[in-house]
């Protein structure tokens, strides 16, 4: 038998991967959860049929969503992760000894259980004593928080299913309120090539609330188009100029994608993206780099 | 009928695209040439079954292989393109008024004819009076050249079929001899994620001959893994520090991917790549940026 898994990135584009075996299938209270083992990408976690992580390339997403905001913040002590039940973002957070509190709010406890069992390399940090896990809706949780976190990472699925509310302006306002005076939020914001409107909307929504908003890119081969985006919004920090240089260099000795040069370069957007963003009449490039 | 084209990026990975119609099929003297029309990427040119260009994303490849070396050179007048029969690289070269001679050496004249007919937006520059086209083997052509070009662009297929010799050290030595004293060569060097060895070999071969060698990346969604690499080697110019800043800024008003920030950022390699390269005992990042 030849078994192939195909994710449709549009009705007319698919990425197809040869599968060694099916490992786990479960309809949770929130979504369909499947785990497959592929020949080239190792184990794959799927939620509602979409690739969330693969063993081979998850490091790119988790390093880039974690180390950019942490290194741009002057001295983060507390971090909130919304989503991220696989544990990859927690694993990267644990590389930062200065973090005293790591709170994870994941809506689907069965994602956590499955990743602890089938993705030990990714979920290894979830049992660390610094990490407090809550299985509840991040949208509700955040409403009760006031200046309680230095960094918030929105490590969610795309804006379909249970994650829709994580892309709305009222949620971002609650995130703003939950952050300390020098706080930074980062969210994954999809493929800007394949889902340009989604990316633009996230940018616009966050920039209507935060003083400084920017977007950076990373290469993730199993995600639609291979190009992935993040939007970073901060109350005070400039994501490039305030990067702690020596700290970033040291961190780069323990990462597979992130380094201090990538940190800066990831904010350079190609023209087909940068021309869609302006800030106070300045082009995005000038706004960010000069 | 539902018609899908699938390119295998390995025996276990495929990119599959829904096809509206088959336009052209021809066994040339060199290779199999096919042109399909896809729903999401427009027309696609295939050589020996592999995607060469699509209407939707060809701009990334052609801008990045052309504008980086030209903008890093102090004052280029003459350029040789080996391969590139589709005309996309010529089209980008014609954005540089200072270029007086644009020579294209393409081994397969039927690629040129088919692209003139079916990809007018890509091949538009091939009839420009500055452009001299020769249908012959670039490997043989280059042997007769001595300090005759400021820039050479190797715009070839991957190292299979007629292009194998374009990745060998003896060919790169001939390229060195064909370049003027401040000459620059750039070659496409495949997916460094999917074909790491190919990329490394090109880098090593060029750096054994040229004083300065570096690699830069671009995002091309229809190429294997979506991440593509180029190797740039020069006799004197530093690819970042010698970028003509004002010129690059002006050029960025007429491009869809390239801009002066992307020019610099594209040379930042993620750790899983940069750690494989060293230069005189320095890490690649330090060698390039500091």
Write a structural description.
The structure is a homodimer of 290-residue chains. Chain A is of the alpha/beta class and 290 residues long. The first copy, chain A, folds into 2 domains: 3-54, Spermidine Synthase, Chain: A, domain 2, CATH 2.30.140.10; 58-289, Rossmann fold, CATH 3.40.50.150. Chain A is 30% helix and 33% strand. The first copy, chain A, contains 11 helices and 14 strands. In chain A, the strands form 3 sheets. Chain A has a 7-stranded mixed beta sheet with strand order 8-7-6-9-10-12-11, with helices on both faces. A 5-stranded antiparallel beta sheet of chain A has the order 1-2-3-4-5, covered by helices on one side. Chain A has a two-stranded antiparallel ribbon with strand order 13-14. In chain A, strand 9 (149-155), helix 6 (169-178) and strand 10 form a beta-alpha-beta unit. Chain A starts with a strand and ends with a helix. The interface between A and B is large, with 45 and 45 residues.
Order of helices and strands of chain A: EEEEEHEHEHHEHEHEHEEHHHEEH
Q: CATH top level of the largest domain in chain A?
A: Alpha Beta
β-strand number of chain A: 14
Straight-line N-to-C gap of chain A: 57 Å
Strand order within the widest beta sheet of chain A:
8-7-6-9-10-12-11
Give the overall silhouette of chain A.
Answer: globular
**What Rg of chain A do the Cα atoms give?**
18 Å
Largest sheet features of chain A: 7 strands, mixed
Strand content of chain A: 25-35%
Write down the domain tally of chain A: 2
Q: What is the average per-residue confidence, as pLDDT of chain A, rounded to a whole number? A: 94
Helix content of chain A: 25-40%
So what's the oligomer here?
homodimer
Number of helices of chain A: 11
Category by helix and strand content of chain A:
alpha/beta
CATH superfamily of the largest domain in chain A: Vaccinia Virus protein VP39
CATH fold group of the largest domain in chain A: Rossmann fold
Instruction: Assign the CATH architecture of the largest domain in chain A.
Output: 3-Layer(aba) Sandwich
Q: Name the chain pair whose interface involves the most residues.
A: A-B, 45 and 45 residues
Give start-end ranges of low-pLDDT stretches of chain A: none
């Amino acid at each position: 038998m030849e078994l192939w898994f195909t994710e449709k990135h549009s009705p007319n584009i698919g990425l197809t991967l040869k599968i060694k075996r099916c490992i786990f299938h479960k309809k949770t209270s929130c979504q369909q959860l499947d785990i497959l083992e592929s020949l080239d990408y190792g184990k794959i976690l799927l939620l509602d049929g979409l690739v969330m992580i693969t063993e081979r390339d998850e490091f790119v997403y988790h390093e880039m969503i974690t180390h950019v905001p942490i290194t741009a913040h002057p001295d983060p002590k507390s971090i909130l992760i919304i989503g991220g039940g696989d544990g990859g973002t927690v694993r990267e957070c644990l590389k930062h000894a200065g973090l005293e509190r790591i709170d994870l709010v994941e809506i689907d406890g069965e994602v956590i259980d499955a990743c602890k069992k089938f993705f030990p390399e990714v979920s290894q940090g979830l049992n660390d004593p610094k990490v407090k896990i809550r299985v509840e809706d991040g949208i509700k949780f955040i409403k009760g928080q006031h200046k309680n976190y230095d960094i918030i990472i929105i490590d969610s699925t795309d804006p379909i299913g249970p994650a829709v509310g994580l892309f709305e302006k009222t949620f971002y306002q609650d995130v703003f309120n939950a952050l300390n005076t020098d706080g930074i939020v980062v969210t994954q914001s999809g493929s800007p090539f394949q889902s340009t409107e989604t990316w633009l909307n996230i940018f616009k929504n966050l920039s209507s609330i935060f003083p400084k908003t920017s977007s950076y890119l990373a290469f993730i081969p199993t995600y639609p188009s291979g190009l992935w985006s993040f939007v970073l919004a901060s109350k005070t920090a400039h994501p490039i100029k305030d990067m702690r240089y020596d700290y970033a260099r040291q961190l780069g000795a323990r990462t597979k994608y992130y380094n201090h040069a990538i940190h800066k370069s990831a904010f350079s957007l190609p023209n087909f993206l940068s021309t869609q963003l302006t800030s106070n009449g300045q082009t995005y490039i000038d706004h960010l780099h000069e």
